[in-house]
Structure to design on (925 residues):
């Protein structure tokens, strides 16, 4: 309770309009506590979200929020981070947003390894349009808003993220705030693209993934070391994550913290030496009301007669 | 002096280089130059060509018939022989003589069909040699040389012979047309300066063919000043403008004819800060699709970086949802949009001006935007800077509208544009809390960048803080704030960025045009004015918000209005009709994907009295 009160400074003055009992409240609380614990500078922290119930979180947290388009939070965030690497950038989106309409970007961010934590609010349904099946809903499942059982296979965000190259993989549960907060704090400090999948009961539309279901079908990772700092161990680590994910129950905790890969910013800087010193958002290269004084004469040479 | 030359060959066979060589050689000799490049959506084997025009006066278009034709294959001859003027020069390798013109696998069947008919009607056999004979009788000067053999004699290494054939053919052609050996050598030296062995082979090829040919009508001489001139394609011009104007972040997804611009930007490694320190190139990200390209660019713009994304019609289609987001969130986003033939994949490598209405109207809902259309390479560079300025000054998305014609044509720009930077109203940290969408008398809220203050953005309707609001009264205020910026834009943008008149202010006929067509119409103006009516040209540059007042001022003085455009509808004509309440029954239109040439404008203008709507079909 004390931590919760302390985290109030990370609440904006906008009323969170999620359904009473929504898993998003747990995510919201854990996030605020994590931001407090990590001591983030509010103006330097950019929360980028997609569309749907999850997307609204950008307005409720008292950091700068960019509430974007359905499926597109990741490329917005990538542009922000790439232009100003000094900002902290976190993405929030639903399973439909990030793994349905936005799947291409989800994969692309893993390939880039930009320092962005993607938080997947996984409730198995499209909540804000009244509960249609999402890409993470299990085959054959029929929630109360569907006319027929789901005929599509589900995607696993952790395994997809691993295949795409994400270097931080974790799964939490919306109602275990203390555990989720720790995942947020770990994810925030990770240097690379990360996925934090959160099992989030949708109390209104998903009558399958309930608190009871979660209690029976999940377990917490114990004696599992997520750290990977030796490329030679990568295959073995990934095989073991596959094994975990092929189990009957879903594991909660941090699967992978891979420190063997360069970040997007480091990769850019390896080609463009001045990138980190002069990132695109650097001010002062131009002066309002004056002719630009950037020297491009060497570039012009190849065109001169 | 006004020479038109076509050099054609299979794609991947060095035609691009031959065209560059020709245009640089002519420019080296002090001539004005303009070159069009036509190619298929194909990497190797299909027909491509460069149409190079060189003159002692400034030019912005190509003209038919041509004075010389150099071909590397039989298809190029089959395609272009009819475009040669009487007395013109044809150059090819003697090895082509036995080739059949009707059995070329890469030739499209429609073209073969037309050619067969032509040959039959003129009683010409189907071999190159037979066509050569017929052309000679018609007054064409045929120069058939054993280029492979000549290259062997010139000690060009065997693996380089095929690769030097283009230089040999274009060298022989240009020397015969009066371009001096040293101008050709200068061009070759520039093109191959990084490859010693290739350079030497090409120089030997030039020397060999110059020794064997002579200028048919003497050497030609130009007086154009070469200092501070830059030979560029439109893609280069836009990139140069962006670099000068402080662009630091560009995103793109590969698409013709836009991608070359991004290559120039990412390779612009040697940019220096005002204090002399290395700054390096802008960050260029090749995104996973155009949706990512535009949304990354928006993200960049929110951080204060001067940001653009560059695309063509199909990519722009994918960007539209995000364009609306940028409009709603008042983001200074620049989209550089090169039109090509549509709909769908259409003619991916050909010219078109059929996206005017799309650029103006694309997107759901209503929001302010600027659409600025450049008409030549100098404007393209200048407008690239202006677009970034306007985006920041008015906090609106800006679409810089170009076309494949400008993107790929080559010409010289006389000077690098000098444009004063305008970054708009910036936020300075006050005591009170920051409101990103603060209501102000101008409608422009002081802009803070992400990282400078707390702020919120949403695609939903929002309040002054940027939080979602569905309140009716806020809706009216915020809606008006966003959309009524159009009036401010119209009042602040100078007239020269809106519409430009060419020719005398005293006219009977006014030709309204835009984009790449401007060059052909302006070039045609002298010939057109030889008739009994006085004619002027109005180039419209700002398409949105539409400068109705200025355009009406010009249309009001004319007794007859004519539009010249690269589309079927006459989109600019429709726009002017609607906005200025005038009638434009006369339309000269072309949608084959090929450029409108100067001669086409001249002839079409004469036909207008019998035929108000003319569809042009010139060029291959």
């Amino acid at each position: 309770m004390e931590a919760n009160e302390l985290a109030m400074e990370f609440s904006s003055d906008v009323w969170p309009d999620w359904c009473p009992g929504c898993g998003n409240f747990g995510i919201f609380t854990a996030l605020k506590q994590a931001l407090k614990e990590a001591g983030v500078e509010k103006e330097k922290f950019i929360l980028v979200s997609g569309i749907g119930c999850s997307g609204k979180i950008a307005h409720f947290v008292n950091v700068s929020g960019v509430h974007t388009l359905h499926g597109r939070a990741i490329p917005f965030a990538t542009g922000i981070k790439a232009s100003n690497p000094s900002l902290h950038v976190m993405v929030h989106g639903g399973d439909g947003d990030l793994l349905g309409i936005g799947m291409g970007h989800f994969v692309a961010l893993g390939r880039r390894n930009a320092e962005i934590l993607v938080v997947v609010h996984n409730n198995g349904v499209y909540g804000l349009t009244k509960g249609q099946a999402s890409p993470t809903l299990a085959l054959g499942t029929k929630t109360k808003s569907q006319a027929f059982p789901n005929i599509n296979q589900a995607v696993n965000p952790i395994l997809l993220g691993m295949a795409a190259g994400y270097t931080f993989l974790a799964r939490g549960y919306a109602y275990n705030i203390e555990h989720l907060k720790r995942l947020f704090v770990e994810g925030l400090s990770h240097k690379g693209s990360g996925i934090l999948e959160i099992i989030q009961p949708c109390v209104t539309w998903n009558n399958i993934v309930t608190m009871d279901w979660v209690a029976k079908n999940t377990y917490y990772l114990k004696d599992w070391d997520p750290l990977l700092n030796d490329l030679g161990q990568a295959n073995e680590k990934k095989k073991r994550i596959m094994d975990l994910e092929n189990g009957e129950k879903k594991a909660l905790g941090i699967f992978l913290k891979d420190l063997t890969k360069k970040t997007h910013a480091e990769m850019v800087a390896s080609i463009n030496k001045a990138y980190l010193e002069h990132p695109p958002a650097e001010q002062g290269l131009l002066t309002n009301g004056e002719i630009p004084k950037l020297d491009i004469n060497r570039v012009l040479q190849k065109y001169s007669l | 002096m006004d020479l038109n030359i076509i050099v054609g060959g299979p794609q991947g066979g060095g035609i691009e280089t031959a065209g560059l060589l020709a245009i640089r050689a002519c420019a080296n000799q002090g001539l004005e130059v303009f070159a069009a490049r036509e190619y298929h959506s194909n990497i190797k084997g299909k027909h491509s060509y460069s149409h190079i025009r060189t003159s002692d006066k400034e030019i912005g278009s190509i003209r038919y018939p041509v004075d010389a034709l150099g071909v590397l294959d039989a298809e190029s001859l089959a395609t272009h022989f009819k475009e040669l003027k009487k007395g013109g020069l044809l150059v090819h390798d003697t090895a082509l003589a036995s080739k059949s013109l009707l059995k070329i696998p890469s030739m499209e069947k429609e073209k073969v069909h037309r050619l067969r008919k032509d040959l039959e009607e003129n009683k010409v056999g189907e071999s190159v040699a037979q066509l050569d004979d017929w052309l000679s009788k018609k007054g064409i000067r045929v120069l058939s040389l054993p280029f492979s053999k000549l290259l062997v004699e010139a000690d060009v290494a065997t693996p380089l012979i095929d690769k030097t054939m283009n230089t040999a053919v274009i060298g022989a052609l240009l020397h015969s047309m009066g371009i001096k050996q040293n101008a050709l050598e200068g061009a070759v030296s520039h093109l191959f300066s990084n490859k010693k062995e290739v350079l030497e082979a090409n120089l030997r090829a030039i020397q060999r063919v110059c020794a064997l040919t002579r200028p048919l009508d003497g050497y030609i001489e130009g007086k154009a000043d070469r200092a501070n001139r830059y030979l560029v394609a439109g893609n280069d011009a836009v990139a140069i403008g962006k670099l000068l104007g402080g662009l630091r972040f560009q995103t793109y997804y590969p698409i013709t004819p836009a991608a070359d611009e991004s290559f120039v930007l990412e390779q612009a490694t040697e940019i220096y800060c005002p204090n002399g320190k290395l700054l390096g190139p802008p960050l260029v990200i090749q995104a996973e699709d155009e949706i990512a390209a535009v949304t990354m660019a928006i993200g960049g713009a929110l951080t204060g970086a001067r940001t653009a994304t560059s695309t063509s019609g199909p990519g722009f289609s994918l960007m539209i949802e995000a364009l609306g987001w940028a409009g709603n969130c008042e983001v200074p986003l620049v989209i550089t949009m090169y039109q090509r033939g549509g709909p769908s994949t259409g003619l991916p490598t050909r010219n078109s001006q059929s996206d005017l209405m799309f650029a103006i109207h694309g997107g759901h809902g209503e929001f302010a935007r600027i659409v600025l259309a450049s008409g030549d390479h100098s404007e393209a560079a200048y407008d690239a800077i202006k677009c970034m300025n306007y985006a920041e000054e008015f906090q609106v998305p800006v679409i810089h509208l170009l076309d494949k014609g400008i993107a790929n044509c080559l010409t010289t720009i006389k000077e690098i544009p000098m444009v004063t930077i305008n970054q708009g109203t910036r936020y300075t940290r006050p005591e009170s809390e920051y409101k990103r969408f603060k209501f102000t008398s101008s409608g422009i809220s002081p802009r803070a960048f992400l990282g400078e203050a707390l702020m919120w953005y949403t695609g939903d309707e929002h309040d002054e803080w940027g939080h979602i609001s569905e309140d009716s009264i806020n809706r009216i205020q915020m809606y008006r704030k966003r959309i009524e910026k159009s009036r401010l834009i119209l009042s602040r943008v100078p007239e020269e960025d809106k519409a430009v008149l060419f020719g005398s202010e005293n006219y009977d006929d006014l030709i309204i045009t835009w984009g790449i067509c401007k060059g052909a119409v302006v070039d045609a103006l002298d010939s057109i004015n030889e008739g009994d009516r006085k004619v002027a040209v109005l180039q419209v540059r700002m398409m949105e918000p539409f400068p109705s007042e200025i355009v009406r001022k010009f249309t009001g003085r004319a007794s007859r209005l004519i539009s010249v455009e690269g589309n079927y509808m006459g989109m600019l004509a429709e726009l002017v009709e609607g906005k200025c309440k005038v009638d434009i029954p006369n339309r000269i239109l072309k949608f084959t994907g090929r450029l409108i040439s100067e001669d086409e404008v001249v002839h079409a203008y004469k036909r207008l009295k019998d035929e108000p709507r003319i569809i042009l079909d010139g060029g291959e």
